[in-house]
Amino acid sequence: MADDGMLLNFELGDAPLTSQVKFKGGRWRDRVKAQKSAKEEASGISTQPSKARYDPDRPGKRPRGNDDGGYMGRHNKMPRTGGGGGGGASEIPWVPTHAMKTGLVSSSLFTSNPEFKTKFDDENDKTNDDEPAEPAKPSNAPLSEEAENFHKLGISKRVAQHLATKLEMKAPTAIQKNTIPTLINEDSDAFLQAETGSGKTLAYLLPIVHRIMALSLNEDGTPKKDVKVDRKSGLFAIILAPTRELCKQIAAVLEKVLRCVPWLVCTTVIGGESKHSEKARLRKGVHILIATPGRLTDHLDHTKVLDVGTVRWLVLDEGDRMMEMGFEDDIRMIVGKIRADKLQEKNEEGLVLKGVLPARRVTVLCSATMKMNVQKLGEISLEDAVHITASKSEMEKDAEGSTEMAFTAPAQLKQTAVIVPAKLRLVTLIGLLKSTFARKGSVMKAIVFISCADSVDFHYEVLKDPAPVESPPPPADGAPPKKVDIHIETTVAPASYITSPANTRVMLHKLHGSLAQPVRTATLKSFAECKDPAVLITTDIASRGLDVPAVDLVIEYDPAFAVPDHVHRIGRTARAGRAGKAVLFLLPGSEEGYTSVLAGTITPERYEEVLKKGLASAVNLPANTPNPNSENERQTWMTRAENLQLHFEQRLLAKPGDNEEDDSNPNPFKGPKGKGKGSKFAQKPVPDDPLLVSARQAFRSHIRAYATHVKEERTFFDMTQLHLGHMAKAFGLREAPGGIGGGTSRRTHRPALSAKKNAAASGPAKPSTKKQDHDDDLGVVDEDAARRMKAKMMMMSMNSASEFNLG
Ligand SMILES: Nc1ncnc2c1ncn2[C@@H]1O[C@H](COP(=O)(O)OP(=O)(O)OP(=O)(O)O)[C@@H](O)[C@H]1O
Q: Where is the region Disordered (predicted)?
């Protein structure tokens, strides 16, 4: 008889078994029989080993296992055997008694998976392994021509020398070469578009710094007579960016540049930090301000000392993202306020601004991706803007009136799409990370993008060492204990599953918008400065603009919600001409078509290849966790994958006191979670393992997030094709938990876009959706998404057997 996806775990090693099957539903008599039988077998005195076991849904009939989210018997590739769904009885395997007893009935990872549509070029795969193809010439690297340097573009010698000697930037990149002269010599608005990692930040910062410097320095660098620029001279430039992290990063780059002009000052005003101290800094005086739109609007409304009369530049970095996040109104307000003030030709202290700074207010828009909403932003903020791109051909395309520029990925970025069945996602991720860090020094940092904060939390918990980090003993001499950075206590931890003999320590980090700002800042710092190999598990909060040069690998474990987001995510690697690799996880089926709309050459890869490499050697299971099978050199990668999955499932099923003998409950059906209030059998409920709770929450949020892919891409990301039972396995769950369809998730991705859209349709925005200038993974799912999920859930509950082939 075909096992149809059932893994029968006859040999499970000596690890403690952590869960018992709960017998629910059906007739009381059936449940008692089933429980009795399970008990007998547990003590080795089974009287009826070969009998069919209890099936709660079909008492008295042949059993169903717990595969496929409660459904077992018909695979989507199998023909229906009767009306009304459900497989024919002959296809239903028998569940061995002891497997039910232990709760270790688990669907096999390697059966019942959908077939791939992709045609893999195995010959090519081989060639790739043996003799790597010539790497593509980097497309976002600094220009190598001898003749190119910053001074020749018009930047003062002082700054050019500082860049070359202190910041190791001798030659500009293509976008810098095309932007700097324009912004120095002209006063027109500009729209900078160039691929990720191409140096757009310095492309707009350097001309601004150069022109502010020119207020007090002559062209030869000597100081102007009787001219003093100090903190009170006025605010000359405002740079807006969508996230706090990006604002801090821009400020860090600018501070480095300003070290050669120490009298110029920049600061940030961003959400999540003390407004009081921001006000104090503004009061002291600042020349360049970097802000998130929400917080700047707030200060413009409430901080009198913030005078925008002298402002000459407004830069909107990642403008499209700000529009997506729903900051259109804030940006309108900011632009309106800046333009409303009469342009001052002299500042209050009599410093002449005219003739040195732009004669009009200049707006610079900056993005690697352009969409309709950026054009709209352009309409709000730009007037006769020049469109500056990195290459001539792009500029020509623009001159010809091409409305939509193709999003390009850095040419040197190696992109792969791994087709992974839902059930195998978690083990494949671990296999990939394990092989990534197998060789010392080959990869130092990897980023894993996940769709929502709950899922980030779960994957962080599941991948980090479960053993609590031991606190250091207090010093014997009574001195105060050494300070540990409390901010990263819950966001940074070692990850033993992905270590290797060459890399015995890999540090895991997590980041999302629901974390407090000091935690976010400290976590990002830890990741950027980590000397050990490091992994960052994150939402799209880290997808825009973030510049950690040592990132060698980006894994899109959950595909992005829209193509531009994908471009930004993969752009966290292969920056400024460096090499990089991006791996996209796709499910077999409609998702496989997604690569046709993405930029660059994407090589498809089978998950088997990833697992073979990753699980060629044993996974380092953390101590004191269930180990389904002691390691054996001869184990195959498939067995290792099965055991690894089982290990996670067991970890999730662990409950406090599971390892202790406890026969005190006389009624097996009013077990730890019995509802019988007042019943003599009622017991104190035993809480589920926090990891299990987290897995359920992550699963629910993941499914909700899945429903929020942009409309144009829903043909690839089709809710109705998702197999919830299989997907649950990727969260270590043996079945899909309920409660997916109802309500909204507070921590699901793509909030403001939909929230604002809804608001437009249904009246004023709720206060909670406003000014989330930083929390781009906080918010609610749009109604349309909720409706699609509800439809899916209804279909599931109406006919669980037809769940496989919805739509
Ligand atoms: N001329 C240069 N020479 C060497 N490195 C440079 C140069 N210009 C910028 N870089 C480096 O390139 C990296 C990417 O720069 P930046 O963050 O400005 O890119 P970007 O185009 O804004 O990317 P994204 O679109 O992803 O935000 C940074 O590490 C920066 O220090």
A: 23-94, 115-144, 655-687, 738-784
